[in-house]
């Protein structure tokens, strides 16, 4: 069976503003050689520091931008080799929920029109009342009401707008949904409702998710596998259960340590990861995490560790991943 | 006298289907150097509350009540006066960075502008200060990134650019509306530590809106739980988290996905949806979804009941709520 998503060696560079006429414009290596495949029904969660390239990866999978190098296949098609009309046809099978909901909702259209738009891509046009029923059903499933279909995006709160964006992605029950921080703007009770809905769609219609979230609890709840990104690369990947119980990369451990806990009597004095990320370190020869790593040694500065299998289904890119 | 005292604050919105209250009868006070958290369901009026304090509510909204800042009622202040205060003495981190960052200016210019306007810095020192602030909020290579346009930044980098802008003038009060939702946990921690330092070292006061109960627990002295535009429970954070007196607060806590819980158990939800603001019920706004509601709950909004040590909850069924759910 073909994988829903198959990415090989994906790279994406962006140019930054030129600093001087006499030097080439600097560039950001947003995604720096990422490969993975998602089998149908095995949802993948992507976590990692802000700016590490998660949204860029999502845009590559959605063919919103071409990669600088590498291939991106969705449902067996190489997106960047596909003719425009074929790509448009394929698009109804993969939908995206954007990180910035407001920017992705057209302010001049009613919510009903926005949410119903992906239905226009279906081969059989729905009858008017059937279409309305689908829109109402999907709005209700994300905790909005039928009357909301006639309102405009600005009449909603931040979390309500996010739910409109989710409803829009869900309405055609696509094979793949790329969701970029879909629930981070939602309070926990609505979040629970949306997460339960995402799981129901998975169980009932076999929807596969590529879910980007900085909330590890959310990823644990929805995803079968988790990839941890750092500076445009995957540094660890494993089934969710394994990764959270037995993280092998020091960055993954730092992420797990930093999760806030709802216990005001037991506040931790922040063990903040020291230092910030720089583009220079990407091009350096050592491990990209070396400057911030608590257990760095000389060999980490000399050679970058490869992402390799350290146990069945468990990949990690750290010289010490096999050790204690 | 408290630095900020909010009395009977309301925000009434005119919509195509009539008018309704997004915020009703809200009271709280904030001392210098104190921190207050606001939590509650999506649409319960948290952002409207913050926007009202800045007098930035949408055009179809009207503010009622008093907002006493250093003794001056901001609800009555004119626009010229508000311009002196906004961004300078009261600063806000908006929930949606892309809508509050100007897409046609570089982030460096947007951070430097208030510094030149309110602090009288010249262009060169304002730029240097902008770079320092970007560095403090953890933007990598701030010197290079200062000339980036908003669309060239990742979601979390935009949010941090906005945080840098809000902190630039050293405000007396920082209103932070979901300031870390777009950030991963390590950077979230870095930002919360930075805000905590400013509270401790320069006596800044903080109003933090967040749906992340972990963030609230680790950051603020006192907490207000809102539902349907009203405060349903409030008090010192430790008391609210230990007490969970109001049935809505209890539902909120039960719904959290927890790390390690995995895919096994289904998340608890609160059945039903929030009432629409144009047809808010006459009684308790939560009654329609509350497992304990009785006839009396539907008659009038319940008054806050004192639970001691500054903790109170607006519910008629507090005794029943104390029993564990069946
Ligand atoms: N311009 C507007 N016109 C009409 N109704 C509005 C408008 N803006 C907000 N509302 C409504 O006012 C209520 C309160 O909105 P507010 O933005 O304060 O919610 P919130 O508590 O911040 O929610 P969230 O957690 O989703 O950001 C919501 O029910 C929303 O639908
Ligand atoms: N159009 C662009 N031009 C220049 N740089 C860009 C552009 N888009 C993204 N970048 C840079 O690429 C890097 C990766 O960005 P990306 O949006 O993928 O991060 P992310 O992992 O989604 O972060 P976040 O969690 O903050 O949303 C960042 O350093 C960002 O500034
Ligand atoms: Mg992103
Ligand atoms: Mg809001």
Helix content of chain B: 25-40%
Strand content of chain A: 15-25%
In the CATH hierarchy, what is the superfamily of chain B?
P-loop containing nucleotide triphosphate hydrolases
What is the CATH-assigned architecture of chain B?
A: 3-Layer(aba) Sandwich
Brief write-up:
By secondary structure, chain A is an alpha/beta fold. Chain A has twelve helices and twelve strands.
Top keywords for this entry?
heterodimer; A: alpha/beta; eight-stranded mixed β-sheet; four-stranded antiparallel β-sheet; B: 326 residues; alpha/beta; Rossmann fold; 22% strand; globular; binds adenosine-5'-triphosphate
Write up what this structure looks like.
The complex is a heterodimer of chains A (324) and B (326). The longest helix of chain A is centred in the middle third of the chain and has 18 residues, at 188-205. Chain A contains 12 helices and 12 strands. Chain A is α/β, with parallel strands linked by helices. Chain A is 31% helix and 22% strand. Chain B is α/β, with parallel strands linked by helices. Chain B contains 12 helices and 12 strands. Chain B has an 8-stranded mixed beta sheet with strand order 6-7-8-3-9-10-12-11, sandwiched between helices. In chain B, strands 2-1-4-5 form a 4-stranded antiparallel beta sheet. In chain B, strand 4 (61-69) and strand 5 (72-73) form a beta hairpin. The longest helix of chain B is centred in the middle third of the chain and has 18 residues, at 185-202. Chain B is globular. At the A-B interface, helix 1, helix 3, helix 6, helix 7 and helix 8 of A face helix 3, helix 7, helix 8, helix 9 and helix 10 of B. One adenosine-5'-triphosphate sits between chains B (13, 15, 22, 42-48, 58, 60, 95, 277) and A (154-160, 187).
């Amino acid at each position: 069976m073909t994988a829903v998503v198959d990415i090989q060696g994906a790279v994406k560079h962006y140019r930054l503003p030129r600093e001087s006429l006499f030097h080439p414009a600097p560039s950001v290596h947003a995604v720096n050689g990422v490969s993975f495949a998602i089998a149908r029904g095995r949802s993948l969660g992507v976590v990692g520091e802000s700016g590490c390239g998660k949204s860029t990866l999502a845009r590559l999978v959605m063919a919103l931008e071409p990669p600088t190098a590498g291939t991106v296949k969705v449902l067996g098609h190489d997106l960047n080799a596909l003719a425009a009309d074929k790509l448009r046809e394929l698009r109804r099978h993969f939908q995206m929920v954007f990180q910035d909901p407001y920017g992705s909702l057209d302010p001049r259209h009613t919510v009903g029109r926005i949410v119903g738009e992906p239905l226009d891509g279906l081969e059989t046009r729905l009858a008017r009342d059937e279409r309305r029923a689908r829109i109402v059903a999907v709005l209700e499933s994300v905790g909005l009401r039928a009357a909301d279909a006639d309102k405009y995006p600005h009449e909603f709160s931040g979390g309500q707008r996010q739910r409109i964006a989710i409803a829009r992605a869900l309405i055609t029950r696509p094979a793949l949904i790329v969701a970029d921080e879909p629930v981070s703007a939602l309070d926990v009770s609505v979040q629970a409702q949306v997460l339960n809905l995402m799981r129901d769609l998975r169980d009932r219609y076999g929807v596969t998710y590529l879910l980007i979230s900085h909330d590890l609890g959310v990823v644990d709840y929805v995803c079968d596998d988790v990839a941890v990104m750092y500076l445009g690369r995957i540094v660890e990947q494993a089934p969710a259960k394994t990764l959270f119980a037995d993280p092998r990369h020091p960055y993954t451990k730092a992420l797990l340590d930093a999760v806030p806990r709802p216990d005001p009597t037991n506040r931790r004095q922040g063990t903040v990861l020291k230092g910030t990320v720089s583009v220079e370190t990407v091009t350096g020869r050592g491990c990209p995490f070396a400057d911030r790593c608590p257990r760095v040694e000389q060999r980490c500065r000399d050679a970058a560790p490869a992402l390799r299998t350290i146990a069945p289904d468990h990949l990690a890119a750290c010289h010490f991943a096999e050790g204690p | 006298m408290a630095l900020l005292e909010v009395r009977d604050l309301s925000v009434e919105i005119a919509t195509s289907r009539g008018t309704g209250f997004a915020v009703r009868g809200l009271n709280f006070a904030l001392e210098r150097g104190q921190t207050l958290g606001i939590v509650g369901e999506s649409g319960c009026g948290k952002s409207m509350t913050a926007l009202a304090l800045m007098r930035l509510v949408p055009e179809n909204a009207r503010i009622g009540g008093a907002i006493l800042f250093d003794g001056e009622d901001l609800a009555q202040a004119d626009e010229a006066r508000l311009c002196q205060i906004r961004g300078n003495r009261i600063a806000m981190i908006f929930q949606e960075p892309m809508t509050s960052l100007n897409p046609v200016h570089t982030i460096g210019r947007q951070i430097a502008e208030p510094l030149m306007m309110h602090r009288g810095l010249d262009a060169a020192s304002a730029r240097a200060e902008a770079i320092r602030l970007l560095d403090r909020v953890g933007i990598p290579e701030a010197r290079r990134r200062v000339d980036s346009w908003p669309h060239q930044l990742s979601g979390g980098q935009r949010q941090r650019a906005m945080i840098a802008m809000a902190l630039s003038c050293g405000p007396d009060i920082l209103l932070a509306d979901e300031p870390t939702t777009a950030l991963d946990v390590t950077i979230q921690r870095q930002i919360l530590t930075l805000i905590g330092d400013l509270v401790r070292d320069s006596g800044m006061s903080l109003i933090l809106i967040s749906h992340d109960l972990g963030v609230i627990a680790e950051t603020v002295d006192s907490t207000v739980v809102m539902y349907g535009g009203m405060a349903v429970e409030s008090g010192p954070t430790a008391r609210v988290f230990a007490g969970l007196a109001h049935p809505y607060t209890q539902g909120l806590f039960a719904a959290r996905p927890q790390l390690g819980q995995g895919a096994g158990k289904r998340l608890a939800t609160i059945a039903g949806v929030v009432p629409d603001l144009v047809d808010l019920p006459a009684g308790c706004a939560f009654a329609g979804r509350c497992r304990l509601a009785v006839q009396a709950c539907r008659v009038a909004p319940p008054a806050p009941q004192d639970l001691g040590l500054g903790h109170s909850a607006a519910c008629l069924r507090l005794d029943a709520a104390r029993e564990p759910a069946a």
